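User: Structure please.
Assistant: Input sequence and predicted structure:
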Amino acid sequence: MSSPSNQPFHGASHHDQLALQGEWEQTALEDSGVINPVDEHSAPGALTTISGDQFRVVTLGGEVLLAGSFTLDASTTPKTIIWVDSMGADAGKQLLASYRLDGDHFVFIAADEGMPRPTCFSTERGQTMRTFVRK
């Protein structure tokens, strides 16, 4: 598998890339310090599917809420990921994030474009944290 820049993953990044493959259900959302606000990128029962370096968020009815690609680096502390949406208001923007992956649990915290990458797993203004479990 390769990242969007077509560079192969190695070591810890390759391991995490493989571990993320499949379907994930969001269990929590925090945006700018607000717990579980209304969110246009998720819906009850919506699943996030990760395939290679691509992701799609799809409702139970089949509506695609969000899609895009990502690049991760598991060699850093905290581990880092860059999300690039292919649709919506953030299409084409590089959203810097940090993540934790522990078995069937995945959490990431992302900053709005132009903001520094978050390093703590608690949001401030302009940051979004999503928590998932493997489906």
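The first strand starts at residue 22 and ends at 31.
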